[in-house]
Design a protein that fits this description.
With about 210 residues, this protein is of the alpha/beta class. It is about 35% helix and about 15% strand. The chain is elongated, with a radius of gyration of 27 Å.
Amino acid sequence: MKIAVVDIEGKDTGKKVDLDDAIFGIEPNDNAIYLDVRQYMAAGRQGTHSTKERGQVKGSTKKIKRQKGTGTARFGDIKNPIFRGGGRTFGPRPRSYDFKLNKKVKQLARKSALSYKAKEKKIIIVEDFKFDDPKTRELSRIGANLNVTDKKSLIVFPEQNKNVYLSSRNLKGVDVVTNNELNTYIITNASVLILLESTVDVLHSTFKN
């Protein structure tokens, strides 16, 4: 699959990039995407919820009343869960929601997400660029030139570019990541995927390894 390369002005440079069909042209696997996104979101949960159970609340351990002869149910101490201020029965405890997902499934999910974007023609290849200083206005202008101002866009660099990242922080709907930070969730969450020309080669080598 060949895609034309544009510059930061949004003009065709006359160059084309060949996207590997083994990465951008596979039959998408929806189940793999679901599992990878679910694992990503589960790993992001804090899981710090906690309540005090019977053995953790303060209160006397003295038996409230005698066991038999009262005509009512038997009770232990005041920390009984049926009393106001008593312990919680089977309350939530701190835990991790993360779960293991095979590496091949995660790779298939990313390939499927990229294939969806390519199939829907939502991938833009841009000539390599960088900023000497953080320039939010300049990055906003580039977005306008590429007609992605009103879309949720994801810009992927081959390596860390601090100035471009800082420029994007105040722009709504614009995320800047490196190739290593690319995952199924952020790919599917973006409306448009903007790849730098050098990023494509890095992606090809990453998935082949």
